[in-house]
Records
---
Amino acid sequence: MARMGIHPSALTFLGLIFSLGAAVAYAKGHFPLAGILFLLAGVCDMTDGPVARITGKSSPFGAFLDSSVDRYSEILVYLGLGAYYVRAQQVEWVAVFLAFSGSLMVSYTRARAEGLGQECHVGWVQRPERLAILILASLLGPRVAGWSLWLLAGLSHLTAAQRIRHVYLVMNKPEPRA
């Protein structure tokens, strides 16, 4: 992609477009298609940073833009999932809300920790794991995706709690005795 001259921001926004397509497919109940589109969005997300570094186009703003667009991509996907489960009158709409809020908290706790000068890459389900779980489950249809949303809800909030605990422990280390 770098040799082809593709700008890393183009990959970032292409991922957003794939996420929008996945959201529409989820809302219409086309879960395998949504899974494929979400996989393509994930590929774009995983390659924009390396392309930026290889081409010398890496920048703090680029990293900020990438993270921000990633959140919008998640919002779209969860919106599509929510639309499907609400329309189908299935209780999994609650799992969508809980998985979505957990996902945002995982991202927020890391960003807030980094804003305080602390590294925070701990936890069971960071973005790649969340994407993989949802993509694989989507390929198997709405029922399996629904189960995976309950799993993601629990694991995402647990990951956020792990990050809160980590930052607490790091920031409250006892001073070494002289």
---
Amino acid sequence: MEIIQSLLGFFIAIGILVTFHEFGHFYVARLFNVTVLNFSIGFGKNLITRKFEGSETEYSIGAIPLGGYVKMLESEELDKLDKNNPNYREEFCFDKQSVYKRFLVVAAGPLFNLILAVIFFVIVHVSGITGVKPFLEGVNGSDKNLFSENTNFEITHINQIRTQRWQDVRVEILNSIIEGNTAISLELINSNGVKSKVQIPVQDDILKKEGDIITNIGLMPLRPDYNTELGFVESDSAASLAGLQQEDVIKSINDQSVSKWSELVNIIKDNPSNILSLKVERNQKIIDVILVPSEREVSGDVEGFAGIAPDRKTMNLQRVTVKYPFLESVIKSYNLTVDYTILTFKMIIKLFSGQANMANISGPLSIAEFSGKSLSMGYVYFAYLLAVLSISLGVLNLLPIPVLDGGHLVYYSIEMLIGKPVSMKFQLIGQQIGLVLLFGIMVIAFYNDFLRIFSG
């Protein structure tokens, strides 16, 4: 089921992103009266083909939904086409347009991806997206006395920029590192309202490390956990037979104090059919309960099972919903798209200059996995992923690699400078180099994907 969901999410995501990208090329081409012969989503055998009356454009959907293209009229094709058709003339050929028009037509695809990202971010900000507040258990190398108290510390700002979710923290840390800062400033507030500041030094090779940048930088996130209050007791279960009730709070097991649900679960799992002596708080009184977890087989191992579930409302203290009015969301979405675009460009430069770990490159398998998970979480999370992927697609296509839009833009820029088109020989050599580079990137991406799958 998860595989089907991942594939569904992947094809929906790629379909939307590619369609909008190609529509950018198509729209600007038609704006300049360039005849478009084919607008295709996908490759291979056409499953659906449609041509509207009065239009020269054939619209099609290919069997392999992993890309698309817009085929525009070229002057070398005029002899093969109907000479009586008024739209098959030299003035409507793409290659006969000024270099500035050709530049804009090619640049429109990536630009439309960035516009699409703004649209998806607006959907996210207007609808509201829920995340986990950035609570800390500690910071490696910092003053241990600061975190010795039994309080929660929330990161409110990084380098004076407001952070409400762990995703905000992650982006600001990356921004700071890529900017070349030697230290990152954290502003914290604990559960008693006391504010403090922490400076985290940045190691030169931090981006070469594998894993999450949050833990690599030395932050120790407070893992979301429930307390030991029971929100549900399954009927005829070991817990029900022991007399446990909803709203009971388990204080200790075999005289071992427990305050987190994870601690409680681990003890129960490790003690199938064993007698456990519980201290339980009920109606502000402590009572004794004897629990004997039943046995169940999980992946070939026998584990204890009690038939209880936590009171989930306790998790709300660690969650936050970020939501803005429409006009403010448009501004924030535009700024976020700009920030992500710049960050992506800088990260790519770090990767290809050897300053970042190539293991951070993700391929289609990882994208499919993330697409499936975000789709199952709701349209807001899926829209957020689509915004980030749309930026990535736009930036990737702007890279100065021949065969990509960015490579063509480089040719047109040279043409603007020297006053004549780049020679076909030079373009062919560039395309060969570009194909080798793209193939190498794809190999690395697939390799990283397979490593993640088999190591998981």
